[in-house]
Amino acid sequence: MRSLHKLDHPVEDARRFLEPGPIILVSTAAHGQRNIMTMGWHMVMGFSPSLVATYIWNENHSFSLARDSRECVINVPGVELLDTVVDIGNCSGRDVDKFDRFSLDAVPAGKVGAPLVGQCHSSFECRLHDGSQVVSNNLFIWEIVKAHVAPRPKLPRTVHYRGDGQFMVAGAEVSRRRRFKPDML
Amino acid sequence: MRSLHKLDHPVEDARRFLEPGPIILVSTAAHGQRNIMTMGWHMVMGFSPSLVATYIWNENHSFSLARDSRECVINVPGVELLDTVVDIGNCSGRDVDKFDRFSLDAVPAGKVGAPLVGQCHSSFECRLHDGSQVVSNNLFIWEIVKAHVAPRPKLPRTVHYRGDGQFMVAGAEVSRRRRFKPDML
Known about the structure:
Two copies of one chain form a homodimer.
Chain A: E1 7-9, H1 15-18, E2 24-30, E3 33-39, E4 42-46, E5 51-55, H2 61-69, E6 71-76, H3 82-89, H4 98-101, E7 106-107, E8 116-117, E9 122-130, H5 134-137, E10 139-149, E11 159-163, E12 166-175
Antiparallel strand pairs in A: 1-10, 2-3, 2-6, 4-5, 5-10, 6-9, 7-8, 9-10, 11-12
Pfam family, one (chains A, B): Flavin_Reduct
Cofactor (chains A, B): FMN
GO molecular function (chains A, B): FMN binding; oxidoreductase activity, acting on the CH-NH group of donors, NAD or NADP as acceptor
């Protein structure tokens, strides 16, 4: 599969892609190594600055790369990458370079050392905003400092993990904009 | 709409309902008041104990109820409640009792003071596990201490917020169980 052409995007709009709770691919680089991990445990925490929290288990190979570089890229894959997403989560970066293994393009980022995953629909470059819970709770709070989003498709058909090998695929889009107070939009 | 009949469920299986990232309704009670808030900013943080983190802005009426009671109930609504979910998010518990306003059943919980929202598909009673980030980051880390899940439908058709009044509705369920290593399930 080829890389998707992405355009610069406002960082405060990252919620549009992350808040629905998709499985993401988190790329990291440090110590001359790079890695990708599959992640379902993340949450938006703010718009401006644009904040995202991620849980990275301290036994994961990505933990030390994220902790030591204080950077990562959050990539949002579509359902067409589902088998790759699963396989990335079932091997370790200690044993294999996952970009090579899965023929994924490591696209240089603009502001961080970790590469974007070219085949993903959108990629958000992150710097560590608050590391106070890294040791105690494996919790990294990131600031998104640069956003890249493919213009087509307008929204990726994301996958959402239920555990036990089961996924929900994103369905219909509906608007309730007219029910919102203007200051709640 | 009537309350759904729910059964006790293993707490460590809550991820099945929460990890896909649905909009949830968080109910709280303290100081003789009760409230419900609509929330999209949450993440699973563990299985055993069964942990969930939520971001509750300190200007929300629910913030002080959650902080002072150190308890809440996380309720998962299906798409049939979407208009109510939006309307709950567009008024304040300072002005109105949301259970009354929206004709929702406040079902007594088993282990916490906050009520379940009867009309939701599943409800997870929570006690505060780690409050160290409440003041600094509006972040509550909860332990789910009792789970209630409707046996039918087997899975709710959840809604997932994109911001700007737009929602994604949960689509197809797919399994990739056979691609997983046994210890990754």
